[in-house]
Each structure stands twice: as C-alpha cells, then as structure tokens.
Amino acid sequence: MKNVTDSFVSLGRWPSAGSFGFNTDILATNPINLSIVLGVLIFFGKGVLNDLLDNRKQRILSTIRNSEELRRGAIEQLERARARLRKVEMEADEYRMNGYSEIEREKVNLINATSYSLEQLENYKNETLNFEQQRTINQVRQQVFQQALQGALGTLNSCLNSELHFRTISVNIGILGAMEEITD
C-alpha cells in the first residue's frame, strides 16, 4: 500500500514545466491502471454481466421446464401405449381362445357330419345289398319254379290224357296268377 501512496506522492514532485511524459516505473503505475480498469469494468460491466447471467439462467430454467413437460408428456404417452398394449393383448388372447373354441366346434361338427354321412352310406349300402339279394332270390325262385314247372309239365304230358292235361294247366295258371299278385 505504501507503494501506491508513494506513486501518488511522486505525482506532486513532477515538474510541471509543460512537458508531457510517461512514467516508466512499471511497478508503480501498473497496479493503479489495473485497479482503475477493474473498477470501471466492475462498475459498468456488472449490469451487463448480471443481465447475461440472468438471461442464461432463464434459458436454462426454461429448457428444464420444457424438458420436464416433455418428460411428463412422454410418460403419459407411454402409459397410454401400455394400456393400449394390454387391451390389444387381452383382445388377442380372447380371439385366440375364441378361435380355438371355434376350431374345436368346427372339428366336432365335421366329425359329426362325417359320421352321419358314413352312417347314411352304410344304410344305403345295406339297402342296396338287401334289394339286390331279394332280386337275385326272386330271379332264382322264378328260374327254379320255371324249371320245376317245365319238369312237371313234361311229366304230366307224358302221363296224362288231354282232358286232365287241360285241367292241370288251368289250375297251374290260376296258381301262377295268384303268386304274381302276391309278389307285386
């Protein structure tokens, strides 16, 4: 501090002869210049610096607020998406279960329809077999009857006279007529 005071004191010893000069003593003049510059900077720059810092602080706070709002919005969207996902998963499970039960119903219906069709085919087959068997039996009967009739006629023709022959033929024709009515 004594050096600063000495430099002010030395100002009074300078000759005032009208000449202008520089003080070349750096140790004496530099702290004074620095203190003046710093004082001016602090006095005038304090407001500007405070304004810059306040603006920066406001931008940071605004960015933080915006980030918080975006985060809240993202959390809400995430919750809505999770709720939609749960709903879709439940619907998918429901469709899957309904699909499985529908498949099982269709399978049972198909099995029942196939079983019914097989029963119908079996019945048609049995009816066809019975019909063909009856037709074949009737054909065999007719052939046997024809052969027996021809044999009987042959025997009758050789053993009977013509009057007895005509009566026997008439009776047999009546029997054949009655048999045809029964079979029809």
Automatic annotation (TrEMBL):
It is a single-pass membrane protein. It is found in: Membrane; Plastid, Chloroplast thylakoid membrane. GO terms for cellular component: chloroplast thylakoid membrane; proton-transporting ATP synthase complex. CDD domains: ATP-synt_Fo_b. Keywords: ATP synthesis, CF(0), Chloroplast, Coiled coil, Hydrogen ion transport, Ion transport, Membrane, Plastid, Thylakoid, Transmembrane, Transmembrane helix, Transport. GO terms for molecular function: proton-transporting ATP synthase activity, rotational mechanism. It comes from the Eukaryota. Residues 64-98 form a coiled coil. Pfam families: ATP-synt_B. InterPro entries: ATP_synth_b/b'su_bac/chlpt (IPR002146). The chain crosses the membrane at residues 32-49. Belongs to the ATPase B chain family. In plastids the F-type ATPase is also known as CF(1)CF(0). F-type ATPases have 2 components, F(1) - the catalytic core - and F(0) - the membrane proton channel. F(1) has five subunits: alpha(3), beta(3), gamma(1), delta(1), epsilon(1). F(0) has four main subunits: a(1), b(1), b'(1) and c(10-14). The alpha and beta chains form an alternating ring which encloses part of the gamma chain. F(1) is attached to F(0) by a central stalk formed by the gamma and epsilon chains, while a peripheral stalk is formed by the delta, b and b' chains. PANTHER family: ATP SYNTHASE SUBUNIT B, CHLOROPLASTIC. F(1)F(0) ATP synthase produces ATP from ADP in the presence of a proton or sodium gradient. F-type ATPases consist of two structural domains, F(1) containing the extramembraneous catalytic core and F(0) containing the membrane proton channel, linked together by a central stalk and a peripheral stalk. During catalysis, ATP synthesis in the catalytic domain of F(1) is coupled via a rotary mechanism of the central stalk subunits to proton translocation. Component of the F(0) channel, it forms part of the peripheral stalk, linking F(1) to F(0). HAMAP family: ATP_synth_b_bprime. This is ATP synthase subunit b, chloroplastic. The gene is atpF.
